[in-house]
Amino acid sequence: MSRSAPATLLYAWYGDDFTGSTDVLEALALHGLPAVLFTRPPSRQDLAAFAHCRAVGIAGESRSRSPQWMDEHLPPVFAAMRSLGAPVNHYKVCSTFDSSPHTGSIGRALELGAGAFPSQWIPVVAAAPHLGRFVVFANLFAQAQDAIYRIDRHPTMSRHPVTPMMESDLRRHLAQQTSLPLGSVDLPALRSGRAPEQLRAEQQSGVRVIFFDGLDAETLEQAASLLWAEATRQPIFAVGSSGLTYGLLSLWRSMDGIGSAPDPPSPGATDRLLVLSGSCSPVTARQIEAAQQQGFRAWRVRPETTLAADVERAVRELSRGSSVVLYTALGAADAASPYGMEQSHALGEMLREVLLRSGVRRLIIAGGDTASHAMSPLGATALTFAAPLTPGAPLCRLHAPGSALDGLQVVLKGGQIGPEDFFARVRDGA
């Protein structure tokens, strides 16, 4: 184990976007496992500042990047993770598993991870029941409002503007991104206690990548126990949603490996809230519309043009005591085209100026890709958990030593996450 790593480190993770990274941070904190999420591979000095943590994360942006970008940037990240000495090394992906051979390729990331860690097989746990995501016979299902859809029929994810999900069988979906042999451990095996036998049979047949079904907390813990048995022999590289994190936490608690979960802190209210939305999700569109009805000032911004007028207007509204929502689209039908990294970075520069001039201390960024790229101008070195709000989108504390933004409260929200009145709840601490 690296001298700079915490002596009792259990878990390291890389999130392929910032919103998913904070989803894991929340799970760990709520279960009493001290954790920190860095915005880059941590230095010894970074780690020393959080020496009490038993889990270390790195927030990334590979979900919006090409395989060529991954070839250049992920090997150093995986090397940094391996140097920490954690038994479990998790490449965290969205529970909707949306990806393609050209953008956010989970298959390419998996191949790079296979080369960086010594384990002979790679578990994949995509299910996240707490977010309404389920895997049965390797097929992914996801909730939208009050209904459950197969992912290729999901009203949003089947029409995602960048990575639409056209296939529900995750083995077939991933086979378009990697040539590694793929297999699975299914729900009947997990429920009957035959999962170890099915796992051995898959390994003996030459399978390298093994999907685990997941329907509830019990099946996630069963999958985690098989993963942990391997991790106690040698560090393991795994791919999955925060459902994998929850399964491991449940297992560790049953083994008395972690303490009791603390009472969750209250977020408290704030006087003004600033929201930036780059999401095309209908869920976020409804949240924006609800916020307007609840007194927020909201208008569309166009990051391909100058944002100076939007900065002035936002500062003016905030100085009057209003909360503000800046958005690029109201749902997919309203989006002219997906915004790229340059536009998201420009939105981040706009955010920084508004925050510094207005003194606002609580911020929401909605949209996984937007959050990943707009956070950079804020100068954060790390995030820690502050309080729960809605599953998958916690309130976090931004660490930016020496900056006026140090201590800023930030919520990084995926497009599909949260109730319609979420923005008002974040403002009011409800």
Overview of this protein structure:
The chain has 14 helices and 18 strands. It is an alpha/beta fold and 430 residues long. Helix 11 links the parallel strand 13 and strand 14 (324-327). The longest helix has 18 residues, at 67-84. It is globular, with a radius of gyration of 21 Å.
Short description:
The chain is α/β, with parallel strands linked by helices and 430 residues long. It has helices at 18-30, 44-49, 67-84, 106-116, 170-175, 187-192, 195-204, 217-231, 242-254, 282-293, 308-319, 341-358, 368-374, 422-428; strands at 11-15, 35-38, 55-59, 88-92, 122-125, 133-136, 139-144, 147-150, 182-185, 209-212, 236-240, 274-277, 297-300, 324-327, 362-366, 382-390, 393-399, 409-413. It starts with 10 loop residues before the first strand and ends with a helix.
| CATH architectural category of the largest domain | 3-Layer(aba) Sandwich
- Which structural class fits the helix and strand makeup? alpha/beta
| Measured distance between first and last alpha carbons | 42 Å
Major β-sheet annotation: 15 strands, mixed
Strand order of the largest sheet: 9-10-5-11-4-1-3-2-16-17-18-15-12-14-13
CATH class placement of the largest domain:
Alpha Beta
Strand content: 15-25%
Number of helices: 14
CATH topology of the largest domain: Rossmann fold
How would you sum up the global shape? Answer: globular
Poorly predicted ranges: 1-7
Going by CATH, the homologous superfamily of the largest domain would be Putative sugar-binding, N-terminal domain
Which percent range fits the helix content? Answer: 25-40%
- Using DSSP, what is the number of strands? 18
Q: How many domains would you count in the coordinates?
A: 2
Mean pLDDT: 93
Please tell me how large the radius of gyration is: 21 Å
Q: Oligomeric form of this entry? A: single chain
